[in-house]
Amino acid sequence: MRDLMSVGKVVRGSLWLYISSLINNFIGYLYWIIATRFVEPAIIGTSSAIMALSSLIASIFGLGISVGETRMIGKSAGSNDYERISYYFTNALIVSLLIFTAASILILFLPEGFMGYSRIEMIFASIFILMGLGSWNVIFSTFFTSLLKTEVIALSTSISQIFKFIVGISLLYLGMELYGIIGGIIASVLISDLVLIYMIRKISWLKIKGLNGNIIKEILMAGLPSYLPIILGTAGNYLGILTIYGIVGKNITGTYYISFMIASFVYNISFTILGLMFPLLSGMEDGRKRATNRAIRISYVITMPIAALGIFYANVPLGFLGEEYLKSTLILRILLIGAFIIPITAGFGSLIYAYGKYSLATIHGISSSITRVLLYFPLVQSLGDVGAAISYTSGFLSELLITIILSRRIRYRIEFNPLIAAIPISIGSIMYIFSMHWIIAAITILGASLFIYAKLGLLNKNDLKEIYEALFTRKYFLPYARYIAHLLYEE
Asked: pLDDT tens for residues 379-438?
């Protein structure tokens, strides 16, 4: 099935996941650009609030099953144990389907006006949970991710997002407003489910197994430490949207959601690379700390120039959506501060889970979420959407503090060179001060940062080779790679 994996394979796997995220964000961005021509921010705010509620309920009923599936399949994959992988997948799927079917039905019995939601909005939330957030989609996606078959995720995302665009925009053109936006999202979830089902059926060694109490127990025990962190994490991510929706209003909810979506595009670079370290590290017997530090460094090298560009030119992506969204420029800048912290915290999170330090993983996982949940209500009341952004970013800071404290418990030394962040920020500030066009700034920040990283040894030849082999498999790219290597390393 697979041999002992290198960081390069993780980078390659993360590439496909990031391509999936890129496609999702890019088409989603185009979707919202066109949607803003048909609906006001209030409609976007309502749809985002429905998704936020669905995600929060799904996390409550999830029991950490997806994380347990990831860990157990990751361990079994290290020894090519097809039989146990089949058991883990089948049991995780069946249990999830039973739980989330019950959860979806339960939502339909909630009274109209629950948390300010109408009956039709509750129905939409129920459909999202059953179709995508809780059962088929999550378990299938987790299965392919655990085996680093992330190209499947990219495929399903591509096809589903195209359908989302076509169906959603068509319905909006017909004047269906909220129903159009939600209809497009439902179409994308349904198509994603169908693609993943088709791809899962093509794996010949995967067998359908019956329910097994011991297997279910293993999955739940492996995922249980993540259960509370997942709930708090989801609350930390989406309670801000719900709080703005309830306190400030639908319009501000819509503009905040768009900024959050753009920031998530940058966050996902680190999350995909370092999240994929989890199954890899679970199957390793030695060298976990070295592999983690190297993945963190590579993540920083890729992320920092993009984050710097986003901070100094936050008005560019928002401006394409319309004048009203430019009010969220400060929001986006505050949110992007988190990108400078995520590589360390996400890398450490994968490491302690791989070591089986579940109690430490629980403490680490809830640190950022508790901070956000505690700050959302008072800060949103006093500062509105700026308060929500400050609350969200504060969560990263508290998680970093906990990471530093807990790292001593496993004798892990965090290796981080501040120059990796300082270089693109310095270049970006110069571009911003001299009012350079954003295209020139983007080329300069990305190109100059890469050049300086190489000259200072922050990106070495082996790193570049790993990234190149992960990104490009075609030989005709080789001359360009050699030319870049010659420029960077003079050889």
From this structure: 999 999 999 999 999 999 999 999 999 988 888 888 888 888 999 999 999 999 998 999
Q: Structure tokens of 275?
A: 């999240």
Contacts of 447 by beta carbon, 8 Å cutoff, 6+ apart: none
Low-confidence ranges of the chain (pLDDT < 50): 1-6, 134, 470-471, 473-474, 476-477, 480, 483
**Phi and psi based region of residue 470 (left: phi greater than 0; alpha: psi -120 to 50; beta: remaining):** alpha
At position 377, the amino acid (one-letter code) is: F
Residue whose C-alpha is closest to residue 138's, from 66, 78, 69 = 66
Instruction: Judge if pTM exceeds 0.90.
Output: no
Beta-carbon contacts of residue 131 (< 8 Å; ≥ 6 apart): 137, 186, 189, 190, 193
Both structure tokens of 221: 């025990």
Residue with tokens 């503090």: 401
**And the tokens for 129?**
């949970």
C-alpha angle 318-133-85 in degrees, rounded to nearest 5: 125
Q: Which of 353, 360, 457 is nearest to 399 (CA)?
A: 360
Residue 196: count of CB within 10 angstroms of its CB? 22
Give the separation between CA 224 and CA 266, rounded to whole angstroms: 29
Do 388 and 235 touch, CB atoms closer than 8 A?
A: no
What does the alpha-carbon distance between residue 32 and residue 39 come to, in Å, rounded to a whole number? 10
| Rounded to 5°, angle at Cα 15 from 9 and 16 | 100
Query: Whole-angstrom Cα distance, residue 157 to residue 273?
Result: 18
**Each residue of 81-93: pLDDT tens digit?**
777 788 888 888 8
Cβ distance 266 to 411 under 8 Å? no
Tokens of 480: 């360009």
The Cβ-side half-sphere exposure at 147, using a 13 Å CA radius, reads: 22
| Cβ-based neighbours of 465, under 8 Å, separated by 6 or more | 8
d(CA 30, CA 288): 40
Residue-by-residue DSSP string for 426-459: HHHHHHHHTT--HHHHHHHHHHHHHHHHHHTTSS
